């Protein structure tokens, strides 16, 4: 089934509107192209509604939110809802500042998101009003482990039910849930956390996957997570002596570019709970 | 003659002021350095006139235009005109939104551009008030083919005459025209479209080429197009099993870095119509 | 001693808040991760005080300053001072425009910086109210040479005394001074100047080094300069036929990622004056 998910992306070439941070935006654009999608970036209030209208999906990432782009996020989100487009929220740094937490919460209140994707600290912040986000990385205290996984999944399912959004939590173990089904994914490598923006890249790519598989959104979101993790594994195998995180970044995007349905289907490591 | 064009860039180290989008800006800076130029980015209304004054050329790219940077584009453009500096417009996404189309048209009305460089859908939008821009990529319906090339060239020459600008349309076949002469260029590889920002990179590099060859602007613009396409060919030859669009991006910029006049002269594939 | 400096970065994982330009921001984030730090970017006035509060250091880079981010620089700088956090200023393009020169001078007046790091033209502008900054690169006329080095060091020490900041000037010869001691550093390669943002990367990394070595700030700043230059040397050795500035960028960040204390200690080339 994951095979069809990625094949649909390559077949349909979904246009994705990204309102995203300027740190990782180039990698987000390249990974969207690598997976078969087509990226557009636009964040001015006078531009976003037109741009989102010609796209199939909207990826909102609050990584470098500011007073000009925040209203654009709401305007684009509402327009995308109106048009029935796919919407995804990446609440980067929710919990790390009042502005980020409040903006993410308000976006969830006013825009219907198909997917909310973040690290466990960001998602805990949104679920519980607490969580100990340490900057843009998840805090160790929040980490998903074999010990707390069942409890975490139950909470994520409840949050999915409350919001109507698929909840995707990425980390050493990835969890992609709707209100009654959770993909527990074990692809990826710890070295991926030494690259800036693998989460942002995943959010962009996941939007394309969901747009191209609108009748199968949960599986598409899970397939995107597996694809990213698997790309991290494939990319790592190609690393040579002396290579580091900058080359690894290129290798991962390259692996997405070369990934076909068979490779994804075979390499995906997940169970459903 | 293309040989001298690139050699003049390396000899003169033209300083290029870029008001450009934040998606591809890093690659624009690196390709400008690779070809022998020197990049500066500045987009605040209180900064752009000073910065453009110390440069030889101004590259305006509307890829992530916003209410703060739009007035800066006009101010810098007018200052550059006043000083007789080279000016280039890259109307990214013209046709995709009202703001983009109107801003591009207004820039052309109020600023004299030496070159307007875009894909065929963007240029058609500016020429005809129509064109079917699909996001930031050209629409298939607008594609330059062997069947419509003569008609397209005639229109581009007329648009060049109307604007006083060199018109550079890039795609599978590239066309670089003034009012009576058109370079038809067949360098490049289709895989280049899987990299974000090869067009933006070309606009930056083309500005440097034109600044360093002010008495020979049309040829300089055509030389830049050939250099970019040829770099795409050279870079592609260096791709290994498992490499993808991210590595390809690096290989292309690397190929520009290593390209000398002889290589460009010999590798350029063009005819004049 | 440099050995301990880099080991402390890897051990303490300093969180660094960056208000930096959008040209080189991705490389700054990746080099911070490569050296063992953790980057956060935030530049909205309503966000910066919260973000800087959870960090250990603040890196302010005026490379693409604008009317929204300038007030954020002051607010974050003052907050960081209040909390006793490490602060660094990278006055990109000071001397190239009135806005850049005035903003840098005003920041130095109102914020106490632990380190000011720039090229010689930028630092001369700040020291003397003059200097001939040519865009974002140092002017040849300002270059530190064996002939003017003693005189330059004397001036930098005086500037350090006046500001209370460590002054780091990078170029072919790097100088890292406080009011009575100067590290004269001869690591690096001339080819590094063909990559955009090696200076910005160094500023980010230096902030992490100083945060992780608060009792040893001058040495930490010098160690960061040696690490960057040495990475340029190591990265250059790994360059293959046909590689250019884009690959070199990756190789340098990779070299930081793989650099351990022994390698830095052994490879650092400096004398103290």
Automatic annotation (TrEMBL), chains A, B, C:
UniProt entry tagged with the keyword ATP-binding: yes
Superkingdom of the source species = Bacteria
**One GO MF term:** hydroxyethylthiazole kinase activity
Q: Which UniProt keywords apply?
A: ATP-binding, Kinase, Magnesium, Metal-binding, Nucleotide-binding, Thiamine biosynthesis, Transferase
Question: In its keyword annotation, does this UniProt entry include Nucleus?
Answer: no
Catalytic reaction equation(s): 5-(2-hydroxyethyl)-4-methylthiazole + ATP = 4-methyl-5-(2-phosphooxyethyl)-thiazole + ADP + H(+)
**Where on this chain does substrate bind?**
41, 197
Q: Which residues does ATP bind?
A: 117, 170
Top-rank EC class of the record's enzyme: transferase
What Pfam families does UniProt report for this protein, alphabetically? Answer: HK
Q: Which cofactor does it need?
A: Mg(2+)
UniProt EC number: 2.7.1.50
Q: In which pathway does it act?
A: Cofactor biosynthesis; thiamine diphosphate biosynthesis; 4-methyl-5-(2-phosphoethyl)-thiazole from 5-(2-hydroxyethyl)-4-methylthiazole: step 1/1
For this chain, the family text in UniProt reads: Belongs to the Thz kinase family.
**HAMAP family for this protein:** Thz_kinase (MF_00228)
What does this protein do, in the record's words? Catalyzes the phosphorylation of the hydroxyl group of 4-methyl-5-beta-hydroxyethylthiazole (THZ).
Q: What is this protein called?
A: Hydroxyethylthiazole kinase
Species: Eubacterium segne
Gene that specifies this protein: thiM
